[in-house]
Amino acid sequence: LGNYDKSCGFICGKDEMKSWSPLETCQLLYTTKDVYGKLEPLLTPFTREDEINYVKFCLGNLYHELCHRYIHRPREKNIEKFRGTCKFFFFLIQNLHYLETGNFILKKADLKAAVSESDRRILEFASLPDDFDFDAVMSETFKWCQNAFKRLDLISRQS
Questions:
Q1: Cα atoms in the 13 Å half-sphere on the side-chain side of 145
Q2: What is the DSSP letter of 6?
């Protein structure tokens, strides 16, 4: 196909795109660069409520995954899988920041500079050293998730 450097691997037809969930439209719109034609007219329109529900859905799934693994998997497996889970925090914090400020930031370095110390710490967990303090990190992660739910409730009430 060519243009490999411009592809994220997502391929979809027009009809499928028009049927896409509006919960994902905001993320798709802001993280996709138009190369040939315009994407926006093909997307299902989204509302602020859709974006809030998208973040709630993603946060709930991530929190469930963390809790499930913490309870049902050996410590070594938790430690092994934690860094992979951290990439999802980027998207959550990116979208939370957008909901709170109206500014959708694409680059991790720029996002780190714009968010709270708590959010920044979570973003930095993806590059923890091998000997990180798992208990302290999990405690901070659970607290961050709980606080993120509260932030979303506040955003919902203000919308």
A1: 21
A2: G
Q: Where are the domains of the chain?
A: 4-42, 48-158
Distances (CA, A) of 15 to 26, 32, 43, 92, 142: 18, 18, 10, 28, 40
CA pair distance 112, 89, nearest whole angstrom = 12
Give the tens place of pLDDT for each residue, 95-149.
999 999 999 999 999 999 999 999 999 999 999 998 999 999 999 999 999 999 9
pTM (predicted TM-score):
0.88
SS3 assignment, position 45: coil
Query: How far, in whole angstroms, is CA 59 from its chain's centroid?
Result: 8
Residue 66 gets which letter from DSSP? H
Would you tell me how many other CB atoms lie within 10 Å of the CB of residue 87?
10
